[in-house]
Structure formats: C-alpha cells, structure tokens
Amino acid sequence: MKSLPDLKIILCSPRGFCAGVDRAIQIVEKALEKYGAPVYVRHEIVHNKYVVDGLRTKGAIFVESLEEIPETEAPVIFSAHGVAKSVPQAAQTRNMFVLDATCPLVSKVHVEAQRLSAEGRHIILIGHRGHPEVVGTMGQLPLSSISLVETENDAEQFQPGDNSQLAFVTQTTLSLDDTAKIIGILQRRFPEIKSTPKEDICYATTNRQEAVKQVAPNVEAMIVVGAPNSSNSMRLVEVAERSGCKISMLVQRASEIDWDVFSGIKSLGVTAGASAPETLVDEILDAFAARYKISVTSHVTAREDIAFNVPRELRD
Question: Is the domain of 256 the same as that of 175?
Fold first, then answer.
C-alpha cells in the first residue's frame, strides 16, 4: 500500500463562531423549541449555508422582506446583521412578534451613529455597499445624514457639506489594515472628524485576522472555511494573501476543495469565518487526512470568553 505524504496543518485560533453568531443561532433554535415551527427569519440568520439549511430543516422559514410573511402569530426574527429602522416599524404596524437577533456589537454601531448624528454631525460609514449590515446601519438615519465610503479613493474624493461637522463609524467585519488606511485619509483631510470611543470592527474579526497574519507566512497554503457572502470570511482570505501565503482559498465544504491546487504542499493553515461551525473545519481535516498523513497543531493568538444573552422571552 502506497504511503501517504506528510502534511503539517496549523489550526488558527480563534476561528469560527463568534458570540454574536452563536447568540443569533440560539435565538432561532430556542424560538423553535418554545413556540414550534414555523418561525420566520428575515434574511439568512448568519452567512453560512450549512447553518441556514440546518435551521430550515427544523422549521425556520427564511425570507428577504416582511412582505413575504403571511399574517401570523409565529415569531419573526431579524438576522445578526441588523436591519434599518423602517423594518421594526413595519413589523410593529403589523403587530408581529419580533425577536431581534442583531449582534449587540452591530447594535452598538447603530447607537453611536445616532448619537453622533444627534450632535449635528454628518456620518461617514466605512463599509461594503449592499452588505446587509451596511444597509441596516445606513437605515438608522435619514439618507441625507449618512454617506458610504468603501475605498481609499472614495475617502479622497468625498466632499461633505460642512468639513467641521463630520464623524465616522465602520462595518464590524472589515479588514483592519484597509480600514486603518481609509480612516487615515479621512483624518488627514478632515482633522476635526469625530469617531466612536471604541473601535467598531468587532473583537472576533480582529482576533481571527491576527491569527491568520501570524500563521500565513509559515505555511504554503491557507484554507478559510466560510461563505462567499460572508464579509469577515472574505477578509480572512485577503489577509492570508497579503501576509505572504500564495495559495489562499475560501471553501464552504470539503467537497469544494480543488485538490490540484493543494498537490505537493507540505504545510497548510486552516481557519474559519465567524459564521462557520467547527463541524465544517473537522470535515476539511478529515478530507486532508484521507489524502495525507497529517499532523495538526493549534496556533493560539487570543482567548475568547464573550457571550451575549438571548432575548428575555427565550430565557429559561
């Protein structure tokens, strides 16, 4: 029998579920347990097909707008990404029973944007156009009160009505390095610009990117387990590439691995976006174990012990 080639695998830690994702999934599961199926979820609860499909089999119905939901007394759950102010207002008009699974760290950005706007400042949101979190944050304020900046070029070209009355907030799942460059441009152009007291990019995004930065230079290839519509997962791929790992690939499941790309490698880094469950990481490891003689070590850059409470209605 032919012996398998050796492969050293370094697992990035932290990886996978963050506290906001864990809370959001718990809200759907506990709602199903307490109230029975169906429960309605506006948008994917988190950006992971495996998670969403699993909840769908338990009785969750996913919709993109409240208009798709019939008259019902069943719970209506808002996803972890947050929603514009108009959404809960519309739900209230229809007397819907709402459970809000918005990540508390996203809600914090909403509150800060509203507070800074109340001071008379025009808000600049640094983020990716069309991402549900960005749609939700921009929807906290009148359109005339908030502007989106996506790139360094956008920051250079931005023309406010009043240079002295500006503030910025950011999407929680951005690249730390890219965002720092954009902020630097805004602060150079508008020295009086105000920011939130604490970094808006969340602890989980920061920790997962830092782990990749440390592992990527020491491996020939990196796999990020996550979804293509997951902002934090896509940023991990970019971070790995910029940190010196030439082969950096996003995969949702082991079945997506292009084995030709990984042919002949002797070292591999593995991480997972904040909405990817650990069972998918195990699936990836099993797939490599079938083709290589693997040795697995963990590279730990931070310890995470944050947890968020589910809504009062769902507590035991």
Answer: no
Is 315 within the bounds of a domain?
Answer: no
131-180: per-residue pLDDT in tens?
Answer: 999 999 999 999 999 999 999 999 999 999 876 799 999 999 999 999 99
Domain with residue 138: its CATH number is: 3.40.1010.20
Measure the CA angle with vertex 307, ends 275 and 134; round to 5°: 45
CA distances from 28 to 73, 106, 140 (A): 15, 18, 24
Answer whether 294's CB lies under 8 Å from 9's CB.
Answer: yes
List, for residues 230-246, the tens digit of each pLDDT value: 999 999 999 999 999 98
Q: Which domain holds residue 177?
A: 105-195
Q: Which residues have a catalytic role annotated?
A: 133
Residues 210 and 289 grouped into a single domain:
yes
